[in-house]
Amino acid sequence: MPELPDVEKFRLYLQSTALHQQIRTTSIVDAAVLKGIGESHFSESLRGRTFEKAHRHGKFCFLRQDDQRFVFLHFGMTGFVKYYTKEMTAPEHIRLSFEFTNDYTLAYNCQRKFGQVGITNDIEGFIDSEELGPDALDGEFGEDEFIQRLQGRRGMLKTALMNQQVIAGIGNIYSDEILFQQRLHPKISLGQLKKTTLQRIYTTMREVLTKAIHAEADPAKMAPSMLTHHRYGDGKCPSCKADIEKIEVAGRRSCYCPSCQDN
Ligand SMILES: [Zn+2]
Prior knowledge:
- The structure is a single chain.
- By secondary structure, this protein is α+β, with helices and mostly antiparallel strands.
- It folds into 2 domains: 4-129, MutM-like, N-terminal (N-terminal domain of MutM-like DNA repair proteins, Alpha-Beta Barrel), CATH 3.20.190; 143-256, Helicase, Ruva Protein, domain 3 (Orthogonal Bundle), CATH 1.10.8.50.
- It contains 8 helices and 10 strands.
- The protein has a 4-stranded antiparallel sheet, covered by helices on one side. A 4-stranded antiparallel sheet has the order 2-3-4-8.
- Strand 3 and strand 4 (70-74) form a beta hairpin.
- Helix 4 crosses helix 7 (195-214).
- It is globular.
- Bound molecules: zinc ion.
- Zinc ion binds at residues 237, 239-240, 242, 257, 259-260.
């Protein structure tokens, strides 16, 4: 499932491909991905427009149009974007695409239909209406606010890290990575954590996400000290070489090292 580092990769991709080209038509293959707007209204409001800038908040990408409105994209479980010409292979599972006057197409693809696309007038208002927490890498989201948001909550740390209303951007993979880097069990509850531990978790969260972005969200390019590198690789803990195990936490399949994360 695309998390903050994956969506940041999509943002950079959109930023370097699909901007400043006039949209000739919009094809909606599957109207089920549209959220809060009908098929014809969506197409009409995009015709003749250009995208001027790509933004991101948590797991959402926003394409700013030249009329200052935004197309928002959420990638669900399997979504991604591709910019291509007729000579190139079109991706499978296109749900919606924008055809530009330069004969390029920007396709929004989603194999499993959990993605969302729509239009919003402003990003701040969208964040409020979706009740999203601060972006995990936002420069203004500091340690104090992180601690405020987590302290006093019930339940597990992992659940809170993955809750988009608490912090936006983290899902199953990177919450596992943060827990591993702090040698905390995936089922550890927030009540067990001291303030100093929460401070360390904040720093680790920022480091893990930044490193993952630098590795273009590709586990193979991540440092060998990262669990994510090994969960998609040899399946061994990078510290003690024990087999990485899986347990069900908050309805997700969490990976961890039973010997390093045994607290
Ligand atoms: Zn280990």
